[in-house]
Amino acid sequence: MGVTAGTVVRVNGPVVDVAGMDSVAMLELVEVGEARLPGEIIALERGTATVQVYEYTGGLRPGEPVEASGGPLMAELGPGLVGGVFDGMLRRLAGAPEFLEVGARPATLDRSLRWRFVPVVVEGEDLEAGAVLGSVPETPTVEHRALVPPRIAGRLEWIAPEGEYTVEEPIARVAGRELTLLQRWPVRRPRPVRARLHAGAPLVTGQRVLDLLYPLARGSTAAVPGGFGTGKTVLLQQIAKWCDADVIVYVGCGERGNELADVLQELSELEDARTGRRLLDRTVLVANTSNMPVLAREASIYTGVTVAEYFRDQGHETVVIADSTSRWAEALREVASRTGQLPAEEGYPPGLASALAAFYERAGRVRTLAGAEASVSVLGAVSPPGGDMVEPVAAHTRRFVRAVWSLDRDLAYARHHPAVSWRDSFCRDADALAGWHSLHGDWNWGERRVRALSLLAEADRIEAIAQLIGAGSLPDVERIVLLSGRLLREAVLQQSALSANDAHCEPSKQAALLDMVLALHDCFRRLLDQGVPATRIEETDLAEATRVRDEAGPGDVEAVEAVRGRLLATLGGLL
Ligand SMILES: Nc1ncnc2c1ncn2[C@@H]1O[C@H](COP(=O)(O)OP(=O)(O)O)[C@@H](O)[C@H]1O
Ligand SMILES: [Mg+2]
Q1: Residue 228: CB within 6 Å of ligand 1?
Q2: What is the Cα–Cα distance from 566 to 572, expressed in whole angstroms?
Q3: Assessment of whether the complete model's pTM goes beyond 0.90
Q4: For the domain bounded by 4-72, which CATH number is listed?
Q5: C-alpha span between 83 and 397 (Å, rounded)
Q6: CA 393, CA 494: separation in Å to the nearest integer?
Q7: With a 6 A CB cut-off, is 130 part of the ligand 1 pocket?
Q8: Class of CATH domain 195-429
Q9: Rounded to whole angstroms, how far apart are CA atoms 370 and 378?
Q10: Domain 445-572 = CATH 1.10.1140.10
């Protein structure tokens, strides 16, 4: 750190005023007090700086020194991130979510580990910024690619031979600059790319209601708003476990610590079906749980997205998950109230919307500087106090995301999980993805989705009438819509996070299950046309349709088709 730059004059919780700060910049990283608490400058006025401190300021007193670092908050990037657990400033934790002693500063990357580096370039080559220098097998699933940092380019004067190197040993010299496996990047600045691309392939989450009805393209954004206990954390953790990305950055932000400890435990035990490796071997955990200092949350989502961009730049498909952005916004409110900023809405600072945008805007599908196609997708939970969906965080988030997966309290109470509402959810990628699917072998994808959504809407409408007049008084055509709607909800949309077979579902089985329900619905209609009364259809035992999602494996299409065949035959017998 640099020279002493100022003196503490006032301590107001995590917000500290420092005098004598003449030659510092906004957002400069500083160390406050004898304990050297890290913080960022968030306001500057005539030599007095306001600093948000990322640790407890308990023992801090006026008169203590403050040192400026000369730069903004940086993330340390390199091999050793994957499989690790870090706090909001990317300091390595021994477990999740452990509590760092005040002033403790474990580095992000272990300095003593040696990594096998295999160069892919030869001396004398002209290298562009972002070019791949070589590979490092970081974990059995993630190949780390050592890159020329974004603003360096030129002749490769020297490259290290294949061998084992620590993150601080030189591995290359480009245009007179010595490069190591370790790089730094300011967390609040997006890493540069060559171009931003249009949406392409879907991000397969393995959750049927999302992939079939509210799908996301790689590089897109989604919010999961929902009241307490509606299943936000379970849903996001399911996605972290099963989505088809290369690297997942999971930011546990202000939520309970034991939840993160649980997910860490599960990720170490679970196997990735595609690779046969531990799911933890593709995951980076950033922990700023409710028992940790509130302001470190503020930085944690930017730290998380910076790590994801770094892996994107290596050509990987990455996903950032933040649970929850509402707890993150509490940090903004805390600062606003202590600095006397005029609150805009419900105590949040006027910068709330732009801070949220700065997070979601870092998602995207891109052409990297190295020329690869890769993406960062960003998913955030929104947990408004009291389930109020028009409060500022929920309202602004809706403007910035491509999909909203809204969790419904009534569905959650009825144990319909995941409680994704088909009334309040939306996605903007569906049309583009229907096109993608039809080019990739599933020409029926868009029509299947539209039929499912309209069946759900029609069943809802009829259900409302049935509640007034009784289901028995409904005409037969409406009664079978209720039956099909229920089948659709129970056999397709509900999905147990606790069942080994059902926790995730491959696209082929997803489509087979929905096709089965739609075929049954068509069959009901034909039977009515041919004079079979609705009561006889209702009395037919269709439970097998609901059981097969749980009884057959995640990709077992044949089992679903066999059930479909048997049920259609049984129904045919009603004629
Ligand atoms: N897909 C699911 N399968 C089974 N149970 C679920 C599922 N989703 C949610 N639940 C149940 O709902 C409870 C609350 O979910 P949680 O994700 O902690 O809610 P939130 O984060 O919204 O407060 C879980 O403990 C679990 O019992
Ligand atoms: Mg939760």
Answers
A1: yes
A2: 10
A3: yes
A4: 2.40.30.20
A5: 29
A6: 28
A7: no
A8: alpha beta
A9: 22
A10: yes
